[in-house]
What does this fold into?
Amino acid sequence: MGARALIPVCLLGLAMTAFPQSARVQKDIAKHQAEYASETDTVRRAKIVAKLGQAESKAAQQSVDIGNFVEALDFMKDYDEKASETDRALDKMGVNPESHSNGFRQLQISVRENLRTVRQIANRAAFDQRQPFLDLAKHLDALNQKLLGELFPRRPRAASEEKQ
It folds into this structure.
């Protein structure tokens, strides 16, 4: 393989590091962000946040794969903001999530999945870069627990509680 044959390979490598997210992931993020911004129905917005969360999670993982933890944090913070905003909007609807779970359920599942992604990224990050991910994980965990409490308010008592 000659030096001229290596030039396109090197350029491709540089392009991949300059744009760590695949074109499809970038397209999905842009599409879901536009849908989220234009949607007025809260339940449909919650479903869009779930799709956006998947795309931003993929983008964050791709950023981590090339060592760009700052960009990964930006993607996950964006998701956290939209998930929190959607949770507040669902609460304002005034419906009982236990009997009308549409929107709440999708948001809770999405938050749980993205919480797992944030924890995985935190484990891969250098010690001095972990704290923002741990703070974000703490916030997502609190949101997840809140949504679980709303969806399943009548949880069975734990065995340790029954013995006391």
Observations:
- Residues 21-152 form one domain.
- The chain has one domain: 21-152.
- Confidence is low (pLDDT under 50) at residues 6-18.
